[in-house]
Amino acid sequence: MDSWSTPANDEVDEVWRIVKRIEKLLPGYNCGECGFSSCREFAGKLVDVAGLVRCPILKQERFSGRAEEIAGLLGSSERTEEIVGVLDGLMADFSLSPLPGEPSCREDLHPFNPEARLEEGDIFRYRPLGCPITHFAKVLKSSQGVVTVHLIGPVHLLLGLPAPEDIGICLVLAFEGTICRGRRPEVGETVRFLPEHCMMQKVHSGVVVHSEGERLRIEGIDLKVW
User: Can you give the residue ranges of the 4Fe-4S domain (predicted)?
Assistant: First the structure.
């Protein structure tokens, strides 16, 4: 694919609309015969019609004519940079960066520890459910058992302070940030995204519940990618 050249957002959106149209023209069996985990991922990797030979099901008579339609779509698109997770090798729809002036994306957490009492300004450590990495966070607000935080890293080591309290495992409920690379999704869409501050560069999935310009809120967070 072509290298990233920071195209206008409407151009990026058009490319990803074409990718979604190609995905719908593929058989949709997610069989893995092409070497990718899903038809969606295969659609995002295609750069020319020659790549369609990797899909044996598309050759069946019932899918006649679809290869030609895909070829037409490929000819009308300019592909963008792949956004790929380092840990899992999965392709993301976009990267999520912090809101302007903030150190990381905002995250909503639900601590599993019933004794955790967190207030605005508190710094603590925890481990997200499904992630092996300890996170360090600062509380922005806390209400009804949900804590909104910024990730700040182990700053106590730099300052020579004691380690923050470890409250155990937390469920990540939501991310909020801005799109820095990739396409702009629709509200209600299940997406794959790569948080810029993720130490493992692991692709996450979730559902877009709010979109305002480049600002997004994504809920239903899962480290399993759908």
Answer: 14-72
The domain locations on the chain are 9-82, 96-222
3-state secondary structure 10-35: HHHHHHHHHHHHHHHHCCCCCCCCCC
The rounded mean pLDDT for the chain is 86
DSSP state of 145: T
The more confidently predicted of residues 131 and 35 is 131
- Contact assessment for residue 127 and residue 171, using Cβ atoms and an 8 Å cutoff: no
Q: Pick from 50, 47, 49, 48: which is nearest to 82 by CA?
A: 47
Instruction: Find the DSSP H helices in 65-216.
Output: 66-75, 155-159
Per DSSP, the three-state class of 54 is helix
Return the closest-CA partner of residue 104 out of 218, 183, 196. Answer: 196
CA neighbor of 190 nearest in space, from 203, 208, 177, 178: 208
Strands 94-97 and 190-195, by their bridges, are parallel
Q: Residue 175's pLDDT is what? A: 98
